[in-house]
Specification:
The protein is globular. It has helices at residues 5-11, 25-35, 40-53, 58-62, 95-100, 104-126, 144-155, 169-173, 182-197, 206-216, 263-269, 286-298, 312-321, 341-347, 361-369, 380-392, 394-412, 414-428, and strands spanning 14-21, 66-67, 75-81, 86-93, 134-138, 159-163, 200-203, 222-224, 248-253, 277-282, 304-307, 324-328, 351-355, 372-375. It is 47% helix and 17% strand. The protein has two domains: 5-230 and 415-428, Rossmann fold (3-Layer(aba) Sandwich); 232-410, Glycogen Phosphorylase B (Rossmann fold, 3-Layer(aba) Sandwich), CATH 3.40.50.2000.
Length: 430
């Protein structure tokens, strides 16, 4: 699904997605789809398929780097041009570099590239003689949209504010900023100015938008578009029954940061893990440290495995081998973040076990498609009951995996979401 000829003519240039750190699979797929040609009839068909996927019945469910000229660190990936429109992803730090930054010097260099050099490159890009038709600037780095809007005053380039995280609320919840402090109030006014100055404000979920409006007041030109996933690597690979005597494989893959709930998992490990369940944690962050300590303390080395992030080939293999994705969200984060790993897991045919507040976009997603389980943070008994069901109800697990796989393709794939981004670009180009 991509731009048709009218949409291309309306923009008359190239769209650029900007972030300090590379976003891999989803943006790769989205760029590909935006640059492909599609028709409005195809878009309508995709909308209908998505609506149907949200209410699947039980019966159906079972039945390479380049560099922008003139810059030093900025990478431009996936640059694909159609006759009248193109799209590309621009970033300062690759996923590999981000994961492999170890030690004080490497982390300081990473911060310099993300918080100083990247915004300067973004500013220079906007002021070039041939600017992009539109810029999508994410909140990674959080003040980059403000830099872009300021630079675009002279050129008139539309800047879309892509809300991946809500500041200053993320910093307050992570205990890095005191609520009500002068710095918090100042940052809140700054974020408000970005909402007002953007050509469009794109949020990842309806609850995230509602929370932001409760904190900041009405937000103009707001749109809700899930971050979605690139489902192409898993196309034609629907979930299959797991091995009869093998354990159920639960995978946590990605950053385990301060917005993710870990205490409920640790407490459930305290009473042991069934031999019929195999946990595999692949990632980095404070949560991984807490899990490693629990595994050592409770002697769970056979049932719980921990390791770092995965290169793409190994990631694809691990995703395809897992039965269930474990996704967590800390209480208070439900209005601030939406774990993007959820959509990739669904596309890979994994059911989703979410430890998260019920009033969240994550819980809404799972319940809407009946593709997993929702456990409130702190409900250790509820988590153990869900794990017992996952282990014992083989048919129910497969049905949830199938519903997840179908919903990801129909509603949250890059192909399904490209027309919604096209509508945003068509609006800001007017």
């Amino acid at each position: 699904m991509g731009f048709d000829e009218k949409q291309a003519d309306g923009l008359g240039g190239q769209v650029e997605f900007w972030s300090s750190v590379e976003y891999g699979s989803f943006l790769k797929g989205l760029v590909r789809e935006l640059c492909a040609h599609g028709s409005s009839a195809e878009c309508a068909a995709r909308n209908a398929e998505c609506a149907q996927a949200a209410t699947f019945s039980q019966a159906r469910a079972t039945g390479a780097a380049g560099r922008t000229p003139g810059t030093r660190l900025l990478d431009t990936r996936n640059a694909i041009s159609a006759p009248a429109i193109g799209a590309r992803q621009c970033f300062a730090v690759t996923e590999v570099d981000y994961r492999q930054s170890r030690g004080t010097v490497a982390r300081l260099l990473l911060r310099w590239r993300c918080y100083v050099d990247y915004p300067l490159q973004l500013r220079r890009r906007i002021r070039q003689e041939e600017p992009a038709a539109a810029l999508v600037v994410s909140t990674n780095t959080f003040y980059a949209p403000w830099v872009a809007m300021r630079a675009a005053r002279r050129t008139g380039v539309p800047v879309v504010h892509w809300m991946l995280d809500l500041f200053p609320d993320v910093l307050v919840l992570a205990s890095k900023l005191r609520a009500g402090s002068w710095a918090e109030r100042r940052l809140r006014r700054w974020v408000r100015s970005m909402f007002d100055g953007a050509a469009a404000n794109v949020f990842l979920g309806s609850r995230l938008l509602a929370y932001a409006e409760a904190q900041f007041g009405p937000i103009p030109r707001a749109k809700v578009i899930p971050i979605g996933c690139d489902a192409a690597p898993f196309a034609g690979r629907p979930p299959l029954p797991r091995e009869e005597y093998g354990p159920v494989r639960l995978l946590y893959c990605g950053n385990f940061g301060r917005m993710h709930e870990v205490d409920t998992i640790v407490q459930s490990f305290r009473v042991g893990v069934s031999t019929g369940v195999q946990f595999d944690f692949r990632g980095i962050g404070p949560g991984m440290i807490a899990l490693a300590a629990a595994v050592r303390e409770f002697g769970l080395g056979e049932q719980v495995r921990l390791s770092g992030g995965l290169p793409e080939a190994e990631w694809l293999e691990a995703m395809g081998a897992a039965d269930v994705a474990l996704v967590t969200m800390k209480p208070g984060a439900e209005g601030i973040v939406m774990p993007s790993k959820t959509y990739s897991a669904m596309a890979a045919g994994q059911a989703v076990l979410a430890v998260c507040p019920r009033e969240s976009d994550l819980a809404d997603l799972i319940i809407a498609h009946d593709c997993g389980w929702v456990v409130e943070p702190g409900d250790v008994n509820g988590l153990r009951a869900a794990l017992a069901e996952i282990e014992q109800d083989v048919g129910g697990l497969l049905a949830k995996r199938k519903r997840a796989w179908l919903a990801a393709r129909a509603c949250y794939s890059a192909e399904a979401l490209a027309h919604r981004w096209a509508e945003v670009f068509r609006t800001v180009a007017k």
